[in-house]
Amino acid sequence: MDPRQCQACSDLLVRHWRAHTRLEALPPDLLPGSRVEAYAVQACIECMSDAPLFGWKIAATSLAGQRHIGVDGPLAGRLLAERVIADGGNCPLGNNLMRVAEMEFAFRMGRDLPPRAAPYAVDEVLAAVESLHPAIELPDSRFSHFERVGMAALIADNACAHYFVLGPAASADWRGLDLAAHPVTGSRNGTVAETGIGANVLGDPRLALAWLANELSDHRLTLKAGQVVTTGTCAKPLAIAAGDRLDGDFGPLGRVAVAII
């Protein structure tokens, strides 16, 4: 794909995003032929925002999630600042196709991790983290059948990024905790709906964070200081409907909430 095709593909997806409409598939001349081309399309999405990139999401961090959408590994997507909802705020449901909420560990970076030839070790990536946060992701896709379109189209579609809620920074010493074994509870309207642990995220949310740093490095992108990385759902996604109040309980690491309107 040349730059013109990348931009045309992105423009098509953004039009559907803004209009709350769907498409069955990308036209053949706008379908990325590789992971590299797919991320080149996704990069164009940043141009629709007047604010610096808020951060990154990781999709398909469990085997079940990968099987559901027909991919063999995780995917990275961009979190746009105007799609971030304040903790306890309102999220419009609109024509959301997926209609789920995901309870996730999120990390705010304290310094840059630029591209390099050698992979980043987990300890290196963690040393660059400023804070840990409870978070809720509310994904969506611009495809009517997102589970069928394949890896390249999903990456181009920003890995199903949509809305995101960031909770307060954890005051507890999260670096001393076993995040893989850490329990997370998602409640809907005051009733526990789903529970899970950090190990459901690529075995450990810290491993997921390192994966993201290396995925960006492989594609000559910098994970920047101040950016937030949300690492994937710890529990089965919660089904949502307008009028729901969602709460994520991360124990000593804090809580996060959002209302669906």
Structure, explained:
With 261 residues, this protein is of the alpha+beta class. It contains 6 helices and 13 strands. Strands 1, 2, 3, 5, 6, 7, 10 and 11 form an 8-stranded mixed beta sheet that branches. Strand 12 (245-249) and strand 13 (255-260) form a beta hairpin. The radius of gyration is 17 Å and the shape is globular. The termini are far apart.
Draw up the topology in text.
Elements: H1 3-19, H2 35-43, E1 55-59, H3 63-69, E2 75-79, E3 84-86, E4 90-91, E5 100-109, H4 122-127, E6 129-138, H5 151-156, E7 163-166, E8 183-188, E9 191-197, H6 205-218, E10 228-233, E11 238-239, E12 245-249, E13 255-260
Parallel strand pairs: 1-10, 3-7, 4-13
Antiparallel strand pairs: 1-2, 5-6, 5-10, 5-11, 6-7, 8-9, 8-12, 12-13
Helix pairs in contact: 1-2
